[in-house]
Specification:
By secondary structure, the protein is an alpha/beta fold. Helices cover 33% and strands 12% of the residues. 47% of the residues are buried.
Length: 372
């Protein structure tokens, strides 16, 4: 079981040098990048909670082998520490999926994948798992019928995905790999009936962990997430955590679930440390700003058209980052709920307001420190 893995928080305090450089006004490189190799329309799933459905873009650029190779080379040169293939599209369907993982690892970047796991069978898993820091399967139901309903797919795909998780766990153990194999449930209150079945399934499959997290919504409430409904699930979620074994940790992202979709801060300081790229190649502060309606104000560039190292050093990039950290932007009213950088934002907001000090942690860093 993975016991020293931070699943509900930020690891920003383990990156003091980058924080101090940022405070001095230096143009720092991100620590972590979340990205996809394909856009949302290329995904073969239709999950009812999918935030990517709110990220509509007219951009139709394709991330090919040359583009991703140049991007990874630039990221390594700049000092990016971790890249996770988890964003608006299902990256495992991209023809450059395996190359992106192996080349990134070769360049010294910690690589990770979030996938629906449908096509990540034993042969592909054998080839990619040795190069990954973590492999996380997005699965929000523990029963076949409900899986089909919630994930928007054929019910029989549930069995295939479960088999693929079993194979991944077997490959990890047989080869003594360091990769963490996890599962993730995006929880809406109406999925309450699947909390215990999925927790029991994670234990049966012997994944390293199952994380149960909130569902993000945009500033218009387009997905209709009932944040008040999470409070009724407390006992059920605690019962799920009690199913933890010596091989599988069941963990709830309590801080975000209990936040009920609200933020304590107005400034957004997190993107310079943790940014997000769309499967179209778009560079934006986060996925909540991928939609074309944010193009003029928040879109920065595209790695298909411009080298990433040039984008990072550009005035446009830093104009956007500085605006997000200024009184011109209010994360409480101008952005969706509980975003990618939420926990890091809480820490940095406290630091900038002198409410907290960012003391250097003692002892060994936690696992996956490259992923904020």
């Amino acid at each position: 079981m993975i016991s020293d893995l931070i699943l509900d928080g930020s690891k920003i305090k383990w990156h003091q040098d980058r924080v101090e450089a940022w405070k001095r006004g230096e143009r720092i490189a991100p620590i972590t990048i979340d990205m996809a190799l394909l856009p949302r329309p290329k995904c073969n799933f239709n999950c009812v909670y999918c935030y990517a459905d709110l990220q509509e873009q007219s951009n139709s650029q394709v991330i090919d082998k040359d583009t991703i190779t140049n991007f990874l080379d630039d990221a390594a040169e700049l000092g990016v520490k971790g890249i996770s293939l988890v964003s608006d599209g299902e990256s495992s369907h991209s023809p450059v999926f395996e190359h992106a993982i192996t080349h990134g690892a070769k360049r010294g970047i910690a690589m990770a994948v979030g996938s629906n796991a449908l096509v990540v069978g034993p042969d592909l898993a054998e080839r990619i798992l040795p190069h990954l820091t973590y492999y996380r399967v997005n699965i929000s139901a523990g029963e076949k019928k409900r899986y089909g309903e919630i994930m928007g797919v054929k019910e029989q795909w549930f069995d295939r995905v479960c088999d693929n998780i079993r194979h991944a766990v077997r490959i990890k153990r047989e080869n003594n790999l360091d990769v963490t194999i996890g599962m993730q449930m995006v929880l809406m209150p109406e999925f309450a009936d699947q909390i215990l079945p999925l927790s029991k399934l994670a234990v049966e499959l012997e994944s390293d962990y199952l994380i149960i997290k909130h569902c993000s919504d945009d500033e218009f409430g387009s997905l209709g997430v009932d944040y008040g409904g999470y409070g009724d699930l407390t006992d059920l979620l605690k019962s799920a955590e009690e199913l933890t074994t010596d091989k599988t940790r069941i963990a709830v992202k309590w801080s975000k679930i209990e936040a009920k979709g609200t933020r304590s801060y107005k400034r957004c300081y997190g993107p310079p440390f943790h940014i997000q790229l769309s499967g179209t190649g778009l560079v934006a502060p986060c996925g909540m700003l991928f939609n074309d309606r944010y193009k003029d104000k928040f879109h920065i560039g595209n790695i298909v058209e411009t080298r990433f190292k040039d984008i990072i050093k550009s005035d446009r990039y830093w104009d956007v980052m500085n605006m997000l950290a200024s009184p011109e932007f209010n994360a409480q009213t101008m952005c969706g709920s509980l975003c990618l950088q939420h926990k890091t934002n809480e820490v940095l907001d406290g630091l900038m307001n002198n409410d907290v000090t960012l003391d250097k942690p003692e002892g060994a860093p936690p696992q996956h420190v490259e992923f904020l």
